[in-house]
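Objective 1b of the project was to move from sequence-level analysis to a structural picture of ligand recognition. The entry below was assembled by the postdoctoral researcher (A.K.) and checked by the PI before modelling. It contains the amino acid sequence of the target and the SMILES of the bound compound, zinc ion.
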Amino acid sequence: MSNRVAVIGAGMTKFVRRAKETPGELAAQAVQMALADAGLTIDDIDAVCLGTAPDAFDGVHMNGEHLIAGAGAVGKPYLRHFVGGGTGVFSPIHGWMHVASGKYKTCLVVAEEKMSPCVPHPAGAFLTIFDHTTEQPLELTLLHIFGIEMCRFMHIYGYSERDLAEISVLCKGNALHHPAAQVAEKITVKDVLSSPVLSWPVKRRDISPTSDGAVAIVLCNERVARTHSKAPVFIDGVGFRLETAYWCTRDLAYPNYVAMAAQDAYAMAGITKPDTEIDIYEPYDPFNYKALHHMNALLLDKSGRKVRELFDAGAFARDGSHPICPSGGALGVGNPIAATGLMKIAELYFQLSGQAGKRQVAKSAHRGVAQAWGDLMQVGTVVVMSSEGALPSGHGRWGAMTAKDLPATPLKQVQDVPHIAYKPDLRYSYDNGYALTSYLEGFKQGALRGSRCTGCGRIMIPPRSFCELCNLQPVHDYCELPDTGTVQTYTLSHVNWDSSPLPRGRVDVFAVIAIDGAAPEMGLVHRLGEVSAKDVKIGMKVRAVWKDAKDREGSVLDIKYFRPLGTRERNLRTVKPIKPAEIDAASAKSFPGRIPMEYLYTAGLGGSRFYADLAKGRLSGTWCSHCEAVHVPPTAFCEFGMVLLDVDKQARAVNVASGVVLSFTEVHEDRSGHLLDAPVVVAQVGYPGTVGSLFGVLELRKGQAAQVGAAVELVPTGKKVGPEHVKFRLKAARRK
Ligand SMILES: [Zn+2]
Ligand SMILES: [Zn+2]
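Corresponding predicted holo structure:
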């Protein structure tokens, strides 16, 4: 029997398109609020867990480690978790494990996302989530995969674009009363339908925005909850399930993995009829159709009838019988991926403890469910929460909270503040192994190849060397497949992988094609050609159009596209076993890869002060009453006491000539790992009587050598921003 776990406090920043704060500063602001809400200090926290989505957004490798200070986890048991877009609702599950196990009495749960450093658009980072060998060469992005899933969902469940637009109207309207909201607006169905088409059926207002933001909650065991909170909200059930990354090999219309996660959570919570036993729903809604797509699974109804009835009856409104996304959801509040899921958990805490203010649902609510989803249509995370009764209205700090009360500084553009540009030049050579190498070799020869599992009998494409359904048994049988198939679903794209518009008049059609001869629904994603966008249909038969033999090089791009199969045309090819000897794969072929991302990092509140001083040849630190010392460099929060600091009001001048080398190293590589023309000495420099240190380049004249303990002074470098412009030289007195 596990211990009961409660939420007793929450904090969050505003969700904004671009924040001046660094990721750590955003996290610290949310943490400080959550601690205050719970009436605790960081010393009362036993463990910390952190959720943040792919490092490619923040552009910070090992982002979890980087965020330790902002998460208040210095010196504590700490772990980062990551399940793509499902992360934010996994965050409280991770924290729940810590407390339910009895290992810790309290756990701080933090979710942060800063997507804005990724330029020209964070959507470009999604290129990196697709398979590097079989999918990335097609230059797919998130809009494409969502368009493909939305098309299938509409086809199977009979929703129109007009129907789905109503979800955007609902969520963006609900968000008008959310203090963190980024894109709250009162709009009509017509506004959604007339917004620009990005990748049909996806239009601008069908989608949540990209955002920066952070959310934190405090979890504790029942004993702490009863003594520290007037209205604890308990976590009654948790579930998380994942599907394989082969997203082209399952029907995208119904998210089975969400239904399985919900079943796990309901079993724990003792729920057998979710549509009558749950009062509030916070399904993940990065796109409007996703809210309904997930609701089918949360009501465990693959037929979709219940959700359709509720939708038609207007039951999803805040004053309806089954309110969904009373917060305003990702569509209205914003979507800093991991933070969004935790925002939904915080909304259940507010609603169930009676602190939702103008967002409070009309019905008397005792139980709610929050859910998130992510990655390649493969992750479902579900949490059920309940309260024993809400606070009387007007009590609690959150009811009257407005945008003015929440931190985060929105920017028009990153260039308006001190910032650092970085263009990583990372190159990869992917080793494809036997199965994929034989697949690519097939492309070179103008044929599609699959492999057959003797256990379940499935013919799989792309071929796999093991079967994930049959105890991971090895798969040895390979075959050639027809190069024809059936369109399962598709999208009509007007944008490139990085969200930039295609040239006027051009439409790229991407489709999931179930290949003839392979197991049902087993297919691949590719382009369609020789067909006008309006004639593309689900169920259409298509055939591969190959490049000339001399131009084929063993890549998925050896197929130019798939074209409609003529009515009189027949599938001439059949499934033909190939003997292993015919597969020319003595050595696994590697595949070149490059991730074309660029970043613009804000220097943050602390960094802005640091570089402003540096431009004047000065150095300041920040006085901290918790440490009773000056932090160097300037910082907007104290990582030891998790108190917020004002880098201007609490600034203290530090003598630029009082530095002491604490340690140094000779660097031979640049940030991307390429050799430098000449080595550079980088030193860690401390200042007497302060907490912290600076890193910078130690400029040495001929005959000078670096030494621990050497006295150094800062070199004025002007208005330049970036770590490479922090420079020191040995003090004159030492140069003898
Ligand atoms: Zn099998
Ligand atoms: Zn301090």
